Each structure stands twice: as C-alpha cells, then as structure tokens.
Amino acid sequence: QKEVEQNSGPLSVPEGAIASLNCTYSDRGSQSFFWYRQYSGKSPELIMFIYSNGDKEDGRFTAQLNKASQYVSLLIRDSQPSDSATYLCAVRTGNQFYFGTGTSLTVIP
Amino acid sequence: EAGVAQSPRYKIIEKRQSVAFWCNPISGHATLYWYQQILGQGPKLLIQFQNNGVVDDSQLPKDRFSAERLKGVDSTLKIQPAKLEDSAVYLCASSLGIGETQYFGPGTRLLVL
To answer: In 3D, which of B44, B34, B92 has the Cα closest to residue A100?
Structure first.
C-alpha cells in the first residue's frame, strides 16, 4: 500500500467551477499535510498546509483534513485556466515526507 | 529573498558515468532535502539534512548515490555509476527546520543514455 494515494486524473472542470482534489494516507501517525501545485516542467510550489482536523481557507483555496478517515482534500473555488496544473499531496510522518503521484487538473475556458 | 538555487539545470550522460548536482538553499534554512522525481510520479525523498547532519537517508540507493552538506549550507548529490533508471528530475528543497514548509529549487533534469 502506498503511503499517499491520489487519483491521477485527469480532472477537467469548466472555468468558474469548484475543483475538488482528494488524497488519502496510510499512516495514522502522520502529522502534517501539504498541497503543492506543479506546472509542467516546473518545480512544486506550496499552496497551503494543514495540521488540524477541519477546514483551512486561503483565498480561493480550502484544505480539508479528516484524520479519522485519513483523508485530506483541496477545493479550488472559481477555477481559472491558470489553475491547470498537477496538484501534489504531501504528508509528513516523523522525519519522512511522502508525496502522492499528483492529480492533473485542467480548467476549461 | 533569493530562492533555492540548483545547477546544472540539465545534464545528459551515458550509463556508468558519474554526475554531480549542486544545491544552495535559502539563506538561514537549516534543513535541506534532495528528491528524485521520475516522469509521471511524485517526488521521492532521497536524503534530508539538518545543518550538516543526515536526518534521514533511508530511501537513498547508497551503492551508487551519495550526498554531503559539509558546511551546513550548500549540498552536493552524486551518482556513480549512473543507470538508465536514474533518468529523472532531481529537486533540492529547503526549510527553516524539520517539518517546516519546504521551498523547491528549479531542479536538475538528468537523462542517462
């Protein structure tokens, strides 16, 4: 079983819609959770992180964490074509960081 | 604030050759990470330094990969000898401390022929 699992997609949404990206992790002891965006040919850039159960909002982005279900998600409101990228979920467990394979998102104008 | 610097940006070598990558982290960042990202996959952590000490290298193929951060700032990752399956992007990241937000450099794209 992989440490972090994401649907590879591709996920397509129309411009202005809400994009929902999901991630599950295997280790209940995982402490912190990160969402990175990676444009093709570029390095990952941090969108946001979350440590506690519940929701965390930053602009158009909302991260949701449910430790009981070992589930973390990212919602992108009012999706824009510039949001088209691969979204990587990363989980910190002890000193180790595990990344998922990423979900490819395409926002259709 | 300058970001994480890496060089070279691209490297093409033949199998069994050696190659080295360099990383300069963000000033003041004590923790430095090397990741390997194979096309279509997420980054895989190879090694993590806290200052000049190794925190975790459990996923580093030590028979051919080595890394050092002698003065607690710059770091070098070496592959000797390279294999075809080492073709990937090698990403360096840094953070203020362990568990803190990581900032990635532009990466080095390695192609082994």
So the answer is: B44
SS3 A44: coil
Other beta carbons less than 10 A from residue B89's beta carbon: 19
Cβ separation of A95 and B44 shorter than 8 Å? no
Which has the closest alpha carbon to A72: A56, A60, A83, A84?
Answer: A56
Phi, psi of A81 (to 5 degrees): -55, -30
**What gap in Å lies between CA A69 and CA B108, rounded to an integer?**
37
**Of A12-26, A68-82, A83-97, which gets the smallest average pLDDT?**
A83-97
A73 residue type, one letter: S
A62-78: buried (b, 16+ CB within 10 Å) or exposed (e) per residue?
bbbbebeebebbbbbee
For B63, the 3-state DSSP assignment is coil
Within an 8 Å CB–CB cutoff, is residue A92 touching chain B? yes
What digits encode the pLDDT tens for the residues A76-106? 999 999 999 999 999 998 878 899 999 999 9
- Least Cα distance to A38 among A83, A79, A72, A78 occurs for A83
Cα distance between residue B102 and residue B108, in whole Å: 17
Q: Are B113 and B12 spatial neighbours (Cβ–Cβ below 8 Å)? A: yes
Q: Note whether A58 contacts B: Cβ–Cβ < 8 A.
A: no
Q: With an 8 Å Cβ cutoff, are B104 and A44 in contact?
A: yes
